[in-house]
Input
Amino acid sequence: YCSNDSVLLVDNSSVAPGRLVKLEIFWDYNGDQTIKSEVDNPVPGATYGHKYPEFFAPATKTYVVRIVSYSGITCQSFSEQVVTLKATPDVEFPTVAPVCANASSLQLQANTLNMTGGTGVYTGIGTTSSGLFSPGVAGQGNFAINYSYTGTNACTNSKTQTITVYPVPTINAGPDRFVLEGGTATINTTATGNGLTYLWTPATYLNSPTVAKPVVAPQADITYTVVVISADGCSATDQVQVSLLKSLVIPNVFSPNGDGINDKWEVKYLESYPGATVEIYNRYGQKVFQSIGYATPWDGTYKGNQVPAGTYYYIINPKNGRHQLAGYVDIIR
Output
């Protein structure tokens, strides 16, 4: 037996003729005789059990068990048996601090204090048999993790710890923003979580770096990172790009003659306006150029051929909050 087992005893006492009227079992006859069981009118073949105090040292302890059977007030007979108990593993399983669901896997650190050479096994949701706990696998909640150790003496003991996994907040900094020069915009953040706090970096151009939806007045293109932290200490992050849309600078003349100077109609800052449209017409109202966006400026050609020198008329719709623009541009060759 191991010291954390119940010792079982089968009563094989009998009397003929007559019957047994009482049974006394001294579980530590050579030690403490007050530790005993008394049974009136015992049933032959019955099983009785006793659990001794668990111990971790020494390696073994022995107890003399005496069973005394009575068939009358003074008629009695006894039998003795030596019971040897083996030490059980003294398992230590330190408390595990709560973790966030997006934390890295952690190695649990249970051990035994009084023996080596045995086998320890972990069981529980999100835990491998070797004790690698994965919060992401377990998910949010409280999880009972058990560590069971079997010593070389075949005795087993275990302890259980509860690991709390906190939920991770969610954060979405919203779509990238395009802001007209001199204007402002609100960053439309959405987030979920418990007792959230916010931190935006850099704080440049923001009215506050610690609110959920700051107002930005950009003077240049900038990328913001927001970190949201829950009351449990769990965090999430996201980024948003804020692009400054400067006022367009539209030249009214260019000379596509191949000398490398003013060969294209360069409308300054137009390429930064997503979805902007450009249409150019000759004096007869024929469309000679069109584009969505302006990544490739007009080079003064139509269907691969150079258009004649003269005056052409443009319609630019920058969109993104700017009004449509119209005017003329001269081609000089």
Remarks:
- The chain has four domains: 7-86, 91-166, 170-245, 253-331.
